[in-house]
Amino acid sequence: MNKRLTAVVVSYNSEDYLGACLDSLFAPAVSSDRQVVVVDNASRDQGFVAQMCNRYAELAVILNEQNVGFSRACNQGIRAYPADYYLLINPDCVAKEQALEKCVCYLDQHPEIGVLGCRVENPDGSLQLACRRAVPRVSTAFYRFSGLSRLFPRSSSFGRYNYTYLDENATAEVEAVSGSFLIFRDELTRQIGLLDEEFFLYGEDLDLCYRAGLRGWKVVYYPEAAVTHYKRRSSSQNAPAANYHFYDAMKIFYRKHWASASLAGRIKTRAVFVAIDAMHLAARARNLLLGRQEVGSPR
């Protein structure tokens, strides 16, 4: 018999923080009607993941011989342990009290919701803006990367990328939520499929949310549940590779959903890709000059 919830944690050299994530998923207050599976993408120390099995007898583990990417690893966990709901949670996230139960209960009460995201906090308790987002069309992406969204955060136009004009403590329908903590229905996967494995590390959450919206499902930000996210601890270990996948995901998403085969469409696509490449080069230069290991654009 299927569990109510399968929580999938994709691990890649995550031994410094995976334990805290699993502790929160196996906390005494968490319902036992859930399966937790760690899919390890060929970490340097897969023995650490095996140690977690000794700590938690109910933990399931899938060990990959190579890094197959985030989307494919998530799909492995989902296919191996079918459930009513699936939770994707990053290994550098710690679920706060009753976060899983609150989300499952809310989804039970709102069958029109296909994808649910919670309040994702920095270690200091402040909101991580990326936990609720608009789908990155050319206009919203321009507002975001030009800095207009930071200059006018209360504008419903300029602030739309991260919905900064909305109350961060209020439940709201949005276009997308973050894959750092994302719950979706099995019924949804039977309609639109699982994560698109062309996305290696980023963009798969936006794509899933967008496809859900196209089929009439609601995507909702639900701040009554919360997690602490020690952001990008894993990806920053290899910032050049992570940045490549970060900006490549933008191209994949645009080509999949917005590109047109017409002459005008091809010209527009080329212009968008040139802009993405320019942002990628700027990110590489910024890290090199400042001696940083940041992924993506500065907040």
Notes on the protein architecture:
The protein has 2 domains: 3-235, Spore Coat Polysaccharide Biosynthesis Protein SpsA, Chain A; 236-290. The strands form 2 sheets. Strands 1, 2, 3, 4, 5, 6, 8, 10 and 11 form a 9-stranded mixed sheet that branches. It contains 10 helices and 11 strands. The protein has helices at residues 18-25, 46-55, 70-80, 99-109, 138-146, 148-151, 186-192, 204-214, 239-257, 263-290, and strands at residues 3-11, 34-41, 60-64, 83-89, 93-95, 113-121, 132-133, 172-174, 176-177, 181-185, 218-229. The protein has 299 residues and is an alpha/beta fold. It is globular, with a radius of gyration of 19 Å. The N and C termini lie far apart (44 Å).
First-to-last CA distance: 44 Å
Overall, the morphology is globular
Q: Which structural class matches the secondary elements?
A: alpha/beta
Number of strands: 11
- Uncertain runs with pLDDT below 50, 5 residues or more? none
How large, in whole angstroms, is the Cα Rg?
A: 19 Å
Number of helices: 10
Mean pLDDT: 91
CATH class of the largest domain reads Alpha Beta
The CATH architecture of the largest domain comes to: Alpha-Beta Complex
Helix content: 25-40%
List the helices and strands in order.
EHEHEHEEHEEHHEEEHHEHH
For this structure, the CATH topology of the largest domain is Spore Coat Polysaccharide Biosynthesis Protein SpsA, Chain A
Largest sheet: 9 strands, mixed
CATH homolog superfamily of the largest domain = Spore Coat Polysaccharide Biosynthesis Protein SpsA, Chain A
Strand fraction equals 15-25%
Number of domains: 2
